[in-house]
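Changelog note: in this version the structure field was regenerated for every chain. One regenerated record is shown below for reference.
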Amino acid sequence: MSELLQQKCEACRADAPKVSDEELGELIRQIPDWTPLTRDGVLQLERVYKFKNFKQAIAFTNAIGDMAEAEFHHPALLTEWGKVTITWWTHAIGGLHKNDFICAAKTDAIFESHAQQ
């Protein structure tokens, strides 16, 4: 995961290539807690994070929002009592780009820092 953490998202255009099956296998090994899934024909990455209460969940959601703004790459966020579901994919290409894996790794790092608080 540390290799992905050191990277920044790159600007993504509609003609940017989606990750290949080979790249998917390599990248998902770096973020093993994420699940690749297809929703409405679009390959996405999703993970559910658990918290003790809503206050912790919303604080985590806000931290992810700050990171997403800094990377200029934005996930789907579902915040509920005690859990946050985060889904990354690249809207411009209708699938997964390396940016999604970078942001997933950064999401995990933010979770780890929140878990220690």
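Spot check on this record: The chain has four helices and four strands. Residues 54-71 form the longest helix (18 residues).
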